Amino acid sequence: MSKKPLNVAVIGYGFMGRAHSNAYRKVGNFFDLGYDIRMKAACARSKDKVEAFASQWGFESTETDWRKLVERKDIDLVDICTPNDSHREIALAAAAAGKMILCEKPLARDSAEGIDMVKAVEAAKVPNMVWYNYRRVPAVTLAKQLIDEGKLGRIFHYRAVFLQDWTISSDLPQGGTGLWRLDVNAAGSGVTGDLLAHCIDTAIWLNGGVDKVSAMTETFIKERMHTLTGKVEKVGIDDACAFLARFKNGSLATFESTRYARGHKALYTFEINGEHASIAWDLHDLHRLSYFDHGDQGIVRGWRSIHVTDGDHPYMGKWWVPGLQIGYEHSFVHQVADFLAGVTQGKPASPTFRDALETQQVCDAVLKSARSGAWETVQG
Amino acid sequence: MSKKPLNVAVIGYGFMGRAHSNAYRKVGNFFDLGYDIRMKAACARSKDKVEAFASQWGFESTETDWRKLVERKDIDLVDICTPNDSHREIALAAAAAGKMILCEKPLARDSAEGIDMVKAVEAAKVPNMVWYNYRRVPAVTLAKQLIDEGKLGRIFHYRAVFLQDWTISSDLPQGGTGLWRLDVNAAGSGVTGDLLAHCIDTAIWLNGGVDKVSAMTETFIKERMHTLTGKVEKVGIDDACAFLARFKNGSLATFESTRYARGHKALYTFEINGEHASIAWDLHDLHRLSYFDHGDQGIVRGWRSIHVTDGDHPYMGKWWVPGLQIGYEHSFVHQVADFLAGVTQGKPASPTFRDALETQQVCDAVLKSARSGAWETVQG
Amino acid sequence: MSKKPLNVAVIGYGFMGRAHSNAYRKVGNFFDLGYDIRMKAACARSKDKVEAFASQWGFESTETDWRKLVERKDIDLVDICTPNDSHREIALAAAAAGKMILCEKPLARDSAEGIDMVKAVEAAKVPNMVWYNYRRVPAVTLAKQLIDEGKLGRIFHYRAVFLQDWTISSDLPQGGTGLWRLDVNAAGSGVTGDLLAHCIDTAIWLNGGVDKVSAMTETFIKERMHTLTGKVEKVGIDDACAFLARFKNGSLATFESTRYARGHKALYTFEINGEHASIAWDLHDLHRLSYFDHGDQGIVRGWRSIHVTDGDHPYMGKWWVPGLQIGYEHSFVHQVADFLAGVTQGKPASPTFRDALETQQVCDAVLKSARSGAWETVQG
Amino acid sequence: MSKKPLNVAVIGYGFMGRAHSNAYRKVGNFFDLGYDIRMKAACARSKDKVEAFASQWGFESTETDWRKLVERKDIDLVDICTPNDSHREIALAAAAAGKMILCEKPLARDSAEGIDMVKAVEAAKVPNMVWYNYRRVPAVTLAKQLIDEGKLGRIFHYRAVFLQDWTISSDLPQGGTGLWRLDVNAAGSGVTGDLLAHCIDTAIWLNGGVDKVSAMTETFIKERMHTLTGKVEKVGIDDACAFLARFKNGSLATFESTRYARGHKALYTFEINGEHASIAWDLHDLHRLSYFDHGDQGIVRGWRSIHVTDGDHPYMGKWWVPGLQIGYEHSFVHQVADFLAGVTQGKPASPTFRDALETQQVCDAVLKSARSGAWETVQG
Question: Are residues A212 and A72 in the same domain?
């Protein structure tokens, strides 16, 4: 069957620009898509850098002004991989131009920006999605499947952490390329929007909505050199954040994230305890799912370490043979595949901008609680 | 050298009565003590049961009234292994009678009771200790040693959980033998006093005092048959409790405990993240300590799994040979050895009643915060 | 009910003298025995050392000549904890004196000695047993139970290793207290008799008899100071040994042992692959059993890590509560309990001397094959 | 800088055809190559299948006759992904035509075929390589680096297994697409050439040449339906193979492979014990390396689990950020990158055909020993 061409433009050439470009290039080799993806344009402010990026990834053209890019008639899909402070503006313009939009997480710096974005894409009726990629790690998708099948029963507990250690040195500056995540103006917040947003997205997907939260944040290093101003400036982001939560389904949760957990590079873990079974997962061994089934015969009951590499595991029939693991980047490939399948079938794949707004609202409540010292109800 | 006889009396024949008796009988085979421990008397209300217990454990005599026991001239040390509601009363009487006192944890049902007990033993100047036994699991003692040596540097994070799953069934009754932990009158609280107290004791020992907390508790099963009244009664304990904490040293912490975490029998874990190194431990594999040293050469840096069974590991020179693990019960043996060494040297071994009161005060703040919904400062 | 007194004598005060003494003292507190064990006599050549040992462990008397000991009328059970070169002689005398005999493993230095011992105890009709204690680690006993229930089906593969690293230094001498295991005259062989004997005993118990073997041995350090002669002498033991085996049931096996595996203190592991399920175990985490059941639903199939601490696990109902592990020493306690239950019921508990002879015969075939370079059939 | 075009042709569209094609397409996005790889031609006997394959992977043309393909002037590199029985013939023709050749492992069905192939490529002076891809899993490459740096010192032991469970059912037929590995004529041997060849290649790379071996093989299921003849035929391959080995450096080794190890999909593991340090690796968690350094301070010595995802780990600077793992397929990408770097620099990247012949010679000795029952010296 013939495939419809799909012209893709990526804005931003950083870590996410690479991860998404890889997904676009690769998805068609492994998944049957209704579309023939074309690497149409890359966009970034630096002409040299965007050309090098385009050359490396096979983009046919480049732009240095995203406004020009979103107006190009030959672009079908705009992928926003820029720092958080430009998500809203680009998304609104892309929606107005009728483009499909994929936006890197978090949706925005806060809910107010996010609401504008949701309104824009819904008014424009353009397919849209946010890159909360961990939903599509096969082990995580399997967790969702097991929960949906009722294997866990009533949920009592949810706990998640996202631990890193890359900002412990006080010599590390803030701001600019690669370091905008430490600049509160660019990022909106610190670990809350960057890391906890992932945990919250997964949690809402697996366990439903969050009712209220009690949080604390800390900025361990109060001042850092700002690479853009050349001055030592106050650090505005949260270096660490932990919160208690009550979900709408009655379960209790703890969430924690920090960039000061020595020994952990990107340790996102979650565990869910249900009446009949429990599940745990860990980004450092993302191809495994831990599962405890109380229904097993007593003397041989134990946590199972499932090597999620079989043909009947989510997405894995598309890859290699049992026992051979895939990695981090594949979650993005799956997301493109699902997004396009959703477009083809007219059923939006989640998380849409609207879905991602819910995560933003939890983040807002978390940051509000950290300031107020009180429990805060999630708005939305 | 000749050893001083030490006549021990144990009140209570349950799980802890057995664990302590085993420690008294065994310690002299492995540790050089200044005392020759004699199993002098066992005490419990049921004559049949206490006699069976005494016979099994080699006690020379029995009592059915603890008041008579504490007044006996031939008893040097009274060990309180009864439910929490009797700790205060027995301890006060034993102190008045000038006995050494070892009391099962938690010290009391609340700080008010605890303060009375501290006053009593300090006024009587009797050696005293509380059975927070996990401090003397060799891997935990090693953690303390590493922290005291400065290997971790500034501490950023502390997290601990104590997860069980034995009360998920609503058919389980409350009250009476083996089930008094579900009866709020006997226990004082649920997981907070039973399990989090362990976590807090270790945390204070390793990381210093707690400044303030924000907590939530939940009772998932609201009513249970009471074995003593034969009626379905309201459950007064907390089935689950989680709290955020700020330590006096500026570090942030999360604590959680529940008896509704399917798949976990007694999973007490803690992790500490410092500037230079991190440490983690797990009661389900209590003979191991996980350690990450950022000072290791970069390409071979990784979490080390230390098999704490070498002769130069804490306490381990007294046991077998490298590679051969000890178990849960040995922590009690170590505690008796340290207690008696402290008596001999005139330096009280911790945790004394006063040390344990601090844990009680954190528990009080936690339960208060769970009721108030606000951050509460730890009194004391 | 009243219990029969059982007067126990232990010959040898080393590592095994301690481990066995601990078992005798402790077993009655946890197991219901028909016997009241009395620590009657300790025996060793050094008067000072045996008296210190007797004092530490509560033996009522001491002997410095094992010949006198075995003739004492007040001794019911003789426990041989001496180096291998004296097993035969002591056992023959003890059998002639009508004593129950427990002998530390290996039974003897070779099968020829072992056959004499089997004949002696069988002629004398005295209860007898060899301390292959790992059979009675609860996780290993559970493995036996699962195999006997048919959960594995046809067995295809067995593999075992016993890895240590304590003799890598060429400065370590051979011979004498604590080092007789390096002296071929005292030990009979190196890792084959010391470590592989454990592996073979377990394997025969779990998987049946061994048909034939092909082996290699190596002595990495050819000469060591001998502590008894004060001279550098040739090392006669095998430092390492590996062999292929075919079991009578058609399964294939690999076995390996060494004292030159850096990083392993006492890593005895085995794995068994059957048609329907597989089992693995590891002495460094002896309280766990790994189990893979192919009958589990495909998408949630995985190796289960069973925490063997529940009341319905072998022996564990006698100890603490679920989640609280026991250690190495408990396997000896279990062995005493089973031995005495066997005596009471008139059903010898295994491994008897005869059972242990089978292990000796495999060891002989292994050492013979290492010399011949050919496959050797196990005699017996 | 401008890049030289490199026209690649892949023969075979199976598992390896896909894995290699993915590598060719992807390598240029992540590695700086002197070549611009072009997917020029795919070749397979079935016209329909090869066209579907070419379409999926972006090959510009197709062939159904490999003889025609190797003669095409517009092909620079021929990649042989066919069953083993055609490796020799295709390689000889491709060498004669002056093509660069990459050949899927094992090099051939036996050394005799392999020698012809080595002669052909060396006579033709064409760059050549065999796809022993596991050398280029970053954790394995790191192991090589640590050994080359002398971190392990003298090597005492090497052990490797490759365990699978996919052929346990007797219903599984032999021969034809996807099942040729069970047909001795197509494959040459069973697990020896398919799986042990990987283990041997790594071992030679890490530990040097093998001197002699003692082996056993077994075919558990003696007859299987042959899909090409439609008849039940004798199974000629080895289902399982284990062997003892002595390396030229004096170290001892055990190797084992089977397709009857229930619970293991593709569990390739190796462990190396040196005087100063040990290393272990496991394909099921291929992004980790276990490392034990005896030089660490005694009380904190332990096996380190290195998450091989940092920028200074082999190859990892080309991928994502620390903590984010890559998978199986990336080893092929690395191999293409290294092969082309070797071509550019005129230094052949290993394993060349000649290197791979050495593995073949060990395989031959293993199979010979399994037949003879004697130790066999490796020829070569």
Answer: no
CB contact (8 A) between residue A244 and residue B216: yes
Q: How many structural domains is chain D composed of? A: 2
* Whole-prediction pTM: 0.98
Same-domain status, A213 and A330: yes
CATH code of residue D295: 3.30.360.10
D86-91 contacts at long range (C-beta below 8 A, 24 or more positions apart):
D87/D113, D87/D117, D88/D113, D88/D114, D88/D116, D88/D117, D90/D11, D90/D66, D91/D117, D91/D120, D91/D121, D91/D353
Domain boundary (A117, A133, A149) is at A133
Question: Which residues in chain C have Cβ-Cβ distances shorter than 8 Å to A298?
Answer: 310, 312
Do C122 and C151 have their domain in common? no
Instruction: Flag if B329 and C326 touch (Cβ within 8 Å).
Output: yes
CA distance A293 to C300: 9
Nearest CA-CA distance, residue C257 and chain B, Å:
15
DSSP 8-state secondary structure symbol assigned to residue C151: S
Residues B108 and B179 in one domain: no
Edge-to-edge strands, sheet with B61-63: B61-63, B35-43, B4-11, B77-80, B100-103, B128-130
Residues C78 and C177 in one domain: no
Is C323 in contact with C310 (CB distance < 8 Å)?
A: no
Q: Of C133, C151, C186, which residue is a domain's last?
A: C133
Q: Are residues C152 and C105 in the same domain?
A: no
The string over B68-97, giving b where at least 16 C-beta atoms fall within 10 Å of a residue's C-beta and e elsewhere, is ebbebeebbbbbbbbbbbbbbbbbbbbbeb
Residue pLDDT tens, chain A, 380 long? 578 999 999 999 999 999 999 999 999 999 999 999 999 999 999 999 999 999 999 999 999 999 999 999 999 999 999 999 999 999 999 999 999 999 999 999 999 999 999 999 999 999 999 999 999 999 999 999 999 999 999 999 999 999 999 999 999 999 988 899 999 999 999 999 999 999 999 999 999 999 999 999 999 999 999 999 999 999 999 999 999 999 999 999 999 999 999 999 999 999 999 999 999 999 999 999 999 999 999 999 999 999 999 999 999 999 999 999 999 999 999 999 999 999 999 999 999 999 999 999 999 999 999 999 999 999 98
A156/B240 CB distance under 8 A: yes
Taking an 8 Å cut-off on Cβ atoms, the answer to whether D326 and A322 are in contact is: no
CATH number at residue D71: 3.40.50.720
Q: Which domain holds residue B127?
A: 4-133
- The minimal CB distance from B299 to the residues D296, D299, D313 is found for D313
Q: Is the ipTM of this complex over 0.90?
A: yes
Q: Contact A363/A371 with Cβ under 8 angstroms?
A: no
Contact A278 B258 (CB under 8 A): no
Indicate which of C265, C282, C288, C331 best probes the interface with B, i.e. most B CBs within 10 Å of its own CB.
C265
Same domain, D66 and D16: yes
A202 shares a domain with A263: yes
Interface test with D, best of A307, A308, A334 (most D CBs within 10 A): A307
